[in-house]
Specification:
Layout: H1 8-15, E1 20-21, H2 32-41, H3 45-53, H4 65-72, E2 84-87, H5 90-101, E3 107-112, H6 116-124, E4 128-133, H7 144-150, E5 155-161, H8 173-185, E6 189-193, H9 210-213, E7 217-222, E8 235-239, H10 242-253, H11 261-272, H12 274-298, E9 303-305, E10 313-318, H13 324-333, E11 336-337, E12 339-340, E13 354-358, H14 364-382
Parallel strand pairs: 1-11, 3-4, 3-5, 5-6, 6-7
Antiparallel strand pairs: 2-8, 7-8, 9-10, 10-13, 12-13
Bound molecules: pyridoxal-5'-phosphate (PLP).
């Protein structure tokens, strides 16, 4: 794997010590104590006992059966525990899948701006890539004709991310079907990074999982985002293709012997309490989004967005005289952290004024108040 510099490195250097964070994409993190309480409340003493007494032997490559069974419940009839591969987090899953599908003779299609690993895992897997730009004028939606036009004889892999980081938008089921049809017609694996699935602001908008929809589809999910379990470091891929599943396990074998059993048990506890946890996370998201709506309305001459419909992030355009890099620097000096466009793309040309704002955390209202204070102090200079 070749060395690629993380785009977020600069952001961490500039805003790493900020007190007010508006830059995370996860929802309010859980505590282990909450997980134990939730387990006991539903009478699940067995899992709590196991957390205390489990063996520290290796777990099976690809994840233990009990965790894979709980995960499979989130999918339809074509996905059972045998169709799940567990990874130590979503990023590892992205890297492993690209390495399993691609080589230096193959070609992949990715989209930008976006999460760096979604775009660059195929590059690290030595593949050629075509990067298709997503644009606010299209409401950040993918144009299927551009995807068709990008397909080459050696295209093996398309990677999409819906709900979309950084804009928090969601494609329609019809567009998802169109992309699946294009992939199917050309025999291409389609990985759908669904790490923000289950955080749709209206649950009726939830898309089918790609693993349910398409025989060569891969659905990527992680505990980090919807359930606030970043520190559990458990992600997974659901897929129907058993041959590729074995390749995923084989590729991962050289990186990690196995997921930690303590993490697996925490993941089981989390997923068994999924409904209660998601309800609470959505309450925070809806509340914070109302505040953001007001912010965008109050300062509409300075900020605009495509209003998000899923997840806990929005990609906002600053209409004042600074790039988002300059704005991010000045905000960091006031203790406020946002994510400028350079965190989501190698070349920010045309996107210089965009930045991502996160609103999934409990203390977001305080961070937003700090931002409003900063805007009030500077608005006359900007206008
Ligand atoms: C789109 C997307 N995919 C994958 C990940 C990685 O997830 P994990 O924290 O489980 O490694 C992230 C994290 O921010 C993300 O935004």
């Amino acid at each position: 794997m070749s060395y690629i510099e993380p785009w977020s490195k600069k952001h961490k250097k500039v805003a790493g010590s900020a007190v007010y964070s508006l830059s995370n994409s996860f929802v309010e993190p859980l505590t282990n104590e909450q997980l134990i309480e939730l387990s006991l409340e539903r009478g699940d003493q067995q899992i709590v006992d196991e957390f205390r007494h489990h063996s520290l032997a290796y777990t099976p490559s690809g994840g233990s059966l009990d965790l894979r069974q709980v995960i499979a419940n989130f999918y339809g009839p074509d996905i059972s525990a045998d169709n799940i591969v567990v990874f130590p987090g979503g990023q590892v899953a992205l890297q492993t899948a690209a390495a399993a599908v691609l080589d230096n003779k193959s070609h992949a299609i990715v989209f930008s701006p976006g999460y760096q690993s979604v775009q660059q895992a195929p590059v690290q897997a030595t593949s050629q890539i075509t990067t298709i730009q997503r644009r606010s004028v299209d409401h950040w939606q993918i144009n299927p004709q551009w995807v068709e036009a990008a397909i080459q004889d050696n295209t093996r892999y398309i990677v999409i991310n819906e709900p979309y980081n950084p804009a928090g938008t969601l494609m329609s089921a019809q567009l998802q079907q169109q992309l699946k049809d294009i992939a199917q017609k050309n025999g291409i694996f389609l990985l759908s990074d669904e790490v923000y699935r289950f955080l749709e602001h209206d649950a009726n908008d939830r898309l089918p999982a790609m693993a349910d929809l398409y025989a060569k589809g891969l659905s990527l999910c992680t505990l980090s985002k919807p359930w606030g379990g970043c520190g559990i470091t458990i992600g997974w891929i659901a897929l129907q293709d058993i041959e590729l599943k074995q390749k995923l396990i084989d590729v991962q074998y050289f990186g990690t012997a196995c997921p930690a059993r303590s993490s697996e048990i925490q993941a089981i506890m989390t997923l068994r309490a999924s409904d209660i946890i998601l309800q609470e996370k959505m309450r925070i998201i809806h509340h914070n989004l109302t505040l953001l709506d007001q912010f965008i309305e109050d300062y509409s001459d300075l900020f605009e967005w495509v209003r998000p419909t899923a997840g806990a992030v929005a990609f906002v355009k600053f209409k004042g005289p600074l790039t988002s890099e300059q704005l991010g620097q000045q905000l960091a000096e006031s203790g406020i952290s946002i994510k400028p466009a350079y965190v989501f793309m190698a070349n920010t040309k045309g996107y210089e004024h965009y930045f991502r704002i996160g609103y999934g955390e409990q203390n977001m209202p305080q961070a937003l108040s700090a931002l409003i204070h900063f805007v009030e102090e500077n608005k006359d200079n900007w206008r």
